[in-house]
Amino acid sequence: MSPPTQPYVTNLSALPGSAETNAYSKSDDLSSLESDTRHGKASPVLSSDDGLLDLYKPMSNWEGAHRYDPIVQWTEAEEKAVVRKTDWRICLVACLVMVCLQLDRGNIVNALSDNMLGDLKLSTNDYNLGQTIFYCSFLFMELPSQLISKAIGVDRYVQHKAVLIYDLHFLLTRSAPESFHRWVPIQESNSDVRPTSIRSWSIVAASQAALKGKTSFFITRSLIGALEGGVIPDLVLYLSYFYKGDELTTRLSFFWVTLSSTTIVGSLLAAGILQLRGTHGLEGWRWLFLIEALFTLTAGIFALFYLPASPTETAGGLRGKKGWFTEREEVIIVNRVIRDDPTKSSMHNREASRSMFITVHLLRANSYSELALVCLMRLVGFLSLWKSFTDFDLWPLYLLGLTTFIAPATAGAYFTLTLRSLKFSTFHTNLLQIPYLVLFICQNLGLVWLARKLNSRLLVASIGSFWQLLFLIVLVAIPDNLGRWAKYAITSLLLAFPYAHPILVSLNSRNSGSVRTRSVSASLYNMFVQAGSIVASNIYQSRDKPYYRHGNRVLLGIVSANIVLFFLVKFYYVARNQQRAKKWEALTVDQRRTYLETTKNEGNRRLDFKFAH
């Protein structure tokens, strides 16, 4: 029996001022639905007399089950204090991981300003191909990364992502788990060498200092993409253990503010480091790759001993023997999260898809009968994965992820090359990236704030596409002899667009409706975003330089189509909600209770689920 998908409370006497009172305590009857506009879906309000408490009870092996209390209450001040502590302990370190991600994948743009392509005898088409290889590797690792991290825990996977051959050998020789529903975690003490994910890609990033030509350039781009692939959806899933749905949007905006801030810092560092050209006979871009990779390596070692598995498992490592949270704080964290979304307790943080276990057993089968049984169970596991993949109610968001960011990704990848073609020096080229990044950060935060203020996600998110459209029209229309500062200003304003990514990622997570779907949908959404980056890497061509007028016209068409798509997706979710509301309202109270007790629909496929838009 699948748990309900809606926020709920089970007591009748909520304390004044508690978060639950404000949202959910106006009715005691299941037949009364309060529209919780803050969450974007209707919230059934249950009393202790409804006889439905068992439907909301977490699974027994969920890591927070021992802190579950359906009648516990807390004050708003207590909740704010817990969220603040979580921000400093968890979100801040997650942002540090994003710093490492951006430094090692983004410094190639700074390296281009130091004539990296000329030193390696590469053309801009070779650069396009290298970036395409990077994004393809990044994309292909998204879903496998998410499935593995759900099995062994996001905290461990972000730390223990490399040495895949060693891990495969370890899994195949390990004793079988007691249940196909539970993953026996890989303990750190069982291996002598467990390099972290961050350490792995930073080592490869450092090796770029030894690039010799086209082949080595392609190989390193592929390895960095493969090792970084899946990190972002892993972190999104990880943060969902600690935060409610409406809080996640803001925390994700911190992610992309961190990325932009890292690019600013990276530009400042590059302006200085690239002046080392000629030191010990090395070009400046080689020093850039080496020095910045050393920083991310250090950060990876720190993260290895810092990230906890869940809110109730913070003791140990650099966190201290007593952990971060008191018992009272753990109770608040656990109950506030699952009252916002009960499906978060339907899988524990070390639970994998059945297909993962069955792959291991398939390779270890000792008889034909065992092989047949394992093959049958493997089919069941893949059907579960296929069920998540074919959740077509999420595909409109995937299409937005594919098309929304192509234009700025294209212009951004060529920004330093454009500035160099306008006769700006290497030093000034790196510094001139900072103004648009500052404006980008402000618009990012402003867009997220506006979406929450108006309780309108898709329409607010489309503002960024209208912004892109305006400045692409200007780029297409301006004459070739326009001054370099005017061209710089127009391109900078294009890149400073209001960034809808945090809104769309959070919306995708919220509309997934279950942990199993959410773990897959986070990767699928990011895969579509990376597919958009692959498209972006091939729009500007050498024959079209230096002003790329044909490429800009292509971008103009893509952005125009994307704006139309935003409105179509909005209409789709409104129509789906109206369709379900009509069916739900036609049921009597007893019929609704029977539906909740017997339905086999899960997550966003249930009648009582309402899509946010």
* Strand order in the largest sheet: 1-2
Number of domains: 3
The helix-strand sequence is HEEHHHHHHHHHHHHHHHHHHHHHHHHHHH
Strand content: under 5%
Structural class: mainly alpha
Number of strands: 2
**So, CATH architecture of the largest domain?**
Up-down Bundle
The level of helicity is: 55-70%
What fold name goes in the CATH topology slot of the largest domain? Growth Hormone, Chain: A
The biggest beta sheet, please? 2 strands, antiparallel
Organism: Microbotryum silenes-dioicae
Protein name: BQ5605_C003g02256 protein
Keywords: Membrane, Transmembrane, Transmembrane helix, Transport
Region (Disordered): 18-45
Report what the structure shows.
It comes from Microbotryum silenes-dioicae. One of its GO terms (molecular function) is transmembrane transporter activity. It is a multi-pass membrane protein. InterPro entries: MFS, MFS_trans_sf. With 613 residues, this protein is mostly helical. It folds into three domains: 212 residues, Up-down Bundle (Growth Hormone, Chain: A), CATH 1.20.1250; 37 residues, no CATH class; 223 residues, MFS general substrate transporter like domains (Growth Hormone, Chain: A, Up-down Bundle). 64% of the residues lie in helices and 1% in strands. It is built from 28 helices and two strands. A two-stranded antiparallel ribbon has the order 1-2. α17 packs antiparallel against α25, α18 packs across α26 and α23 runs antiparallel to α27. It starts with 18 loop residues before the first helix and ends in a 15-residue tail after the last helix.
